[in-house]
Write a structure and sequence with these properties.
Helices cover 57% and strands 9% of the residues. The protein has 59 helices and 20 strands. The chain has seven domains: 16-147 and 241-320, Rossmann fold; 150-220; 325-535, no CATH class; 544-739, no CATH class; 758-897, no CATH class; 916-1027, no CATH class; 1137-1198, no CATH class. By secondary structure, the protein is of the alpha/beta class. It is extended and about 145 Å long. The longest helix has 34 residues, at 1005-1038. The N and C termini lie far apart (130 Å).
Amino acid sequence: MSQLKDFIEIDKKFQNSINLQLDIDNRKKLNSYIPTRSSINILNGFLENVINNKEKANILIGPYGKGKSHLLLVLLAVLKESEDKTTEKLLNKIEKISDVTANNARLIHKEYKPFLPVIISGTDRDLNHGFVLGLMEALKKNDLMDIAPDSDYSKAVEVIENWKNKYKKVYKEFENILTGYETNVKELEKSLKSMNRNGLEIFKKVYPELTAGSEFRPMVQDNAMTLYREISIALKEHGYGGIYIIFDEFSKYIEGHERETFAYDMKILQDMCELANNSKEQQIHITFVAHKSIKEYGNALPQDMINAFKGVEGRLKEIRFIVSAQNNYELLQHVIKKKGTEYKAWLKEENNSEIIKESYKIPCFQSMFKFSDYQQIVVKGAFPMLPLTAYALLNISEKVAQNERSIFTFLANDEKGSLVNLIENGADELLSVDVIYDYFKNLFKESISLTNIHNEWLKADYALTKAESLGEEKVIKAIAILHMINKNEEVPVKKEEIRLATGLSKEDFTGYLQKLENKEIVKYRNKLGIYTFKNNIGINLDKYMNQMIEKQSLSLNWAEEFANISELEYVLPKKYNREYTMTRFFKYVYMTQEQFLSVKNSNYLFDTYKADGLIVCIVMLKENDANEVKSHTDKLKDERIVVIYPKKAFGQQQSIRKLKAVKALLKDKNFIDENKVLQQELELYRDDLIFEINGELESLYMPENGNDICFYSGRDSEKLKFESEKNFNRFLSDICSSYYENAPKINNELINRQNVSAQIKKARNQIIDAILGEEDLSGFEKGTSSESTIFRATLVHTGIMDNNEYEAGCEKILKEIRDFIGKCAGKKTSFDELYSKIMGEKFGVRKGVIPIFLANEIVGLQDTPIIYLRDKEVDISSEILNNINEKPEEYFLFIEKENMEKEKYLNILEENFITEEIKKKKQSKMQRLSNIVESMHRWYRSIDQYTLTFTKQIFNKKEKGYIEEETFEKIKKFRKIFKGIELNPREVLFEKIPEAIYGNIDDNAYEKCTQEVLKIKKCMSENLYFTKIKTATDIKKVFGEKANDSLGECLKTWYVEQSEKAKSHIFSENITGFMTYIGQLKTNDELEIVSRVCKIISGIYINDWKNDSFEQFMDELARVKASVEAVKENNESGSGENRIYIENGGNKIERFYETDDDDSTSYFLQNAIEEALEEFGDTLELNQKVSVLAKALEDLLSK
C-alpha cells in the first residue's frame, strides 16, 4: 500500500486560529471560511439583530476551536464593507447553506451604513481604559482620528510639543529627568501615542517636577460609555451606521482577573451593555466571546466574582455556538483531502474493515448516520483516523482545547503528535485513539479544575508506567480517553468499544487486556459493566483494607448490616392500592433467627418499623432449623407479617466486611487528603461491592427467585410458592384486602396518607376551621385549590356532606367515631382508644383524613364537646385536632349532656357576666363555656384585693354591708375556684360552682346555683363600698362627730382647733402627712377622703387591706390624733425640742422638732452629707453649700 503522505493533503487554511485583532482585514482568512448550517444560523441571528435593531448586547458561548472567531470575522466583514469580489464569493458560499442569511447580508450592504468594528482584548488591567484603547485603535485603523476625542495621552503629547517649541529650558530638563526612567522623549511620545499606561504614569510622575509641584489633570473625557456615545454620533457624519464591539477571549479575561477590581470592571461592562441596548439610530452592538458561561465555572471562580457578574449577565442574550456532531465530521472531511482512491486499499485491509464495520454499531454513529453517510462522512471523511479516533478528537477538543491546542492545530499544525506530523513521519496504520491522548496529554495534566479529566490522566499516567508493550499502552490510553469523554450513552467503556478505539485485532486486544487485568491495572466494574483503572498510584490498597477489616468486631450485627446495604426496601401491593386509591406498603426487615424468635408480640415490630405490613427476612449465615421460624410465625398470629427464610446461607460475609473497610477509608479525611486519586477508586469499589451484595440479597429474598421458603400465619408454606414478582405482589394485595378491608376510599393521596406536607396541612386547617366555625362550606365545592380538592375528596365524594349514600369504608369509620363520642358522654375518654381502633385491623385509616372526620362529627353534636390535654381543657381548633393526630394518648374527649336546667343556668350567667366585647364576636357553640368562664374570671380579677382575701367581717350583723355567715362561706369557696390562672370551663360551671354552693352535683342544683352566684357577685362587688362607708363612720366617732355629719368638715374643724405649734411641729411621717392633707383638704367626697386617710395613716390602700387592717387603722388614727393634741402653744415638752425657721423671699417656714437619739441609719446619712460636701471642696463657696442645704431642708419641710 502507498504511504499516507502520498495521497493525503491537509488544507493549510486551517493551520492557524483566527485572531480578530490581526485578521480583521485578512482576505485569506475570509476565503477559508467553511459555512456550516449551525454557524450560519448564528450569523443570521446577528444580522437580524442589526436589521431589527434588537438584542444588541449578547454573549457567544462555544468550545475552543469550533470557529466562533471565524464566524465573527465574517460578521464584521459583512457589516463593514460594501460588496466586492471577496464578500460576494463569501455570500455565495453562505447562500448554498441559507439563502435567507445571504439575502440579509445583501440587504445590509444595500440599505445600511457600515459599522466601525472595535475589538476589545481584555488584557488591560483597567477595563475602562481597555474600551477606550480599543476605540482609539479602531479610529486610527480607519483614518478617523479627526473625530477622536482628546485624552490624557494626546494632551500629554501636546504638552511635550509645547515645551519643545516654547520652553527649551524645561524641555532640556525633561530630557535629563527621563534618563532616570531609562527612556527618552522619542520613546515616551511613542508610548503615549499608542496609549500605553506605563508611558502616561511616567509622564505624570515627571510633570510636577517641571511645574512647581502641580498635578497633570487635563480636562478630558475618559469615561468609556460617554466616549462611545459621542463617537457613535460623530461617526454619522463620516458615513457610519454605528459601532460593533467584539470582546474577544472574554473567558480568559474572567479567569485571569484580579478579585479586588472585578466588581468595578463589571460596572463598566454593565454600563456598556446598557449603552448598546438603549442605542437607537446610531446602533451600538457588543458581543462577548466565551468558551463557557459563568455558571459553568462552579468552584473555579470565587463566589463574589460570580455574584458581581450577575448584574451583567441579566443584560446579555446568551447565544450557544452549538455545532452539530454531523457538522463536525463534515469539517474533518473538508480539512483532510484525499487524492485518488488509494485510501480504499487501507479501508479494505481485514482488521481495518472489521473495525469500521463494528464501529457503526456504537450508538454515537448508529443514532446519527445512515450506514452510507457513515461510510462517506466518518470513515472516508476522517481518514486516516479510525471512527472512534475522530469521535474522540471532536469530544476531547471541546472539553480541553485552547488556542494553542485545538482541533485545528491537531489537523493542520506541523508539530509533534499532530495529524500532519504523523502522516509526514510515515504512519503505517489507521490512527487509533492513543494519538489523541498523546497530543492533548499536557492539557490533561494542566486541567486541574476539570476533575474528571485530570483524575483519569493521573490514573492513566501511572498505569502507563506499568505497561510492558505498545499494545498495553494503546488499551490504557483508549480507556482513559473514553472515561474523559464520559458519554456512556454514546460510547460505553466496554470491552468491544475499547478494542475498536485501539484498532487492535480481537486476539491481540484480548491478550493485552487480560495482562492489564492480571496486573490489577484495569478492573471490570460489575455494577456498570464497564472497565476502569484499578489505580492505586503506588499505594497498597489491600493492605489498608485488611487493616480496617482487622479492626472490625468478630461478631457484626449482621441484620443491621443487611438493612444498611439492601436495596430491597419496600413493596407496594399494587392491586389493593389501585382499588382503594391509596398507597400501602410492606417494608423489608432483616432479622437473625435469634432476634425473630425473641419477638413476643408483633406490635413491637410495627412500633419499630412504621409500615402496613412487614416482609421479615431471616439472616442466615449457617444452616438453621426452619421449623422454629415457622412455629414462631404461627405463634405471632399477625396477618401483616410475611417471613422469608432462605434455603441456603448468605455467602457474601467477606464482601460486607470489605465494604465496611472501604467506607471507613472514605471517611478517613487524612487518608483521602494524602491519597486523593484513590477516592474515586474507593467509591467505585464501594459501588461494586454494594451491587454484588444486593445481587445475592435479591436472589435469596425475592420469592419469585425460588431460593427461599415463605412463612405466613396459618398457611402451608408449600402452597406459598410464587413463580413471578406479580404473583407475590398479588399475595400482598390479598393480605391488605383482608386486614384493611374497611379502609375508606378517598381519591386524594395528598391527604389520604399518614404524614401530610406542611402545605396540605395548611389546606386541611382551613377546612377544619371553616367546619368548626360553622361557616358556609359551598366555596370549597368548586375550584382547584388544595383545600377545595381535599374537601371534595374527603366529604363530598364520600357522601358525608349530604348524609346520603356513604362510601362503604367511610360509613364504617363514621360509625366508630360516633360510638366513641357516645362513650364520652359524661366520661373523659382517651382519643388513643379511637385511633387504635380505626387505624388498626379492619380499617387502617390514614392519619391525614382523621381530623376532618372528627371536626365534622364534633360540630354536629347537640351536646357540648370538651377536649382535655391531660387534665386541662383546651379550645377545639384545627391546631388541637392536629395535635391529637400526633399524640392521641395525651388528649381526651368529654361530652357534656345538655338539659333545660343547664340551659337556664348558662343563659343567666351569660346575661350577668359576658362582656360586650365578647358578645360582639361571632362565637361557636363549642366556645360558649369558655366564654362564660373567661368573663367570670375577668370580673373576678377586677375585684379589689381586700374583697378577694378577707376571711373576717368588720360589720356587725345590724350594719349595712354585713354578709350572712352561710353566704360568706360560699363566697370563700367561690373565690377559691377562680383563684387559679388556668381554669377548665366545664369543670368550673358544672362541677366546682354547684359543689361549692349546693354541695352536690345534679340537675336540681343549677337553679339554686344561679341565684347564689348572683348574690355572691352582688356581695363581692359592694363589699369595698360598704367598707369605706363604715370606715368613714368610725373616723367621725374618733373625732367626736355623728355618723351623718360631714367627714371633711369634721376633720377640718378638728384641725382648726389645734395649736399653731402643733401645725408646724415635725412628727413622724404619717402624722405629718395627715396634718398636711387635712390642712389642704378641699373635697367633701367621703369615699375619696377615706381612701387617702387610710393610705396616709396605715401606709396601704384600703383596697389592699387584710383581715386586721381595719382595727389597726383605727388604733393608729387614735394615736395620731392624741399625738397632735398633746402639742400645746405654751407647751415646753422638754430640753429635746428644737425650732427651725427659714425665710426665703417672703416665704416663711417655722417648724418644731424633738431631738432624736442617733441610730446607725441617721449616722450614715450624716456621714454621706458631710462626704458629699467635702467632695466638692473649694469648687463651691461656703455660702453656696449652705444655700443648697437650706433649699433641700425647705423642700423637705414643705411636704
